[in-house]
Specification:
By secondary structure, the chain is α+β, with helices and mostly antiparallel strands. It is built from one helix and three strands; from the N terminus they run βββα. About 15% of the residues lie in helices and about 30% in strands. The N and C termini lie far apart (about 25 Å).
């Protein structure tokens, strides 16, 4: 994300994708729900993909 989380971390894990996107802070574990539009505007770069 463009702005870091207040805990200081700048890495997020995507938990759910759909109309809304839920992301979780890797450092503190707090989850945030964003609209797809907000998420796409604030996305900086993708670090990697996790395969199931």
């Amino acid at each position: 994300m463009k702005k870091p989380h207040p805990c200081g971390a700048n890495e997020w894990q995507i938990i759910r994708m759909g109309m809304d996107i839920r992301i979780k802070c890797v450092q503190c574990g707090r989850s945030v729900l964003l609209t797809r539009r907000e998420f796409e505007r604030s996305l900086k770069k993708i670090l990697g993909a996790v395969e199931d």
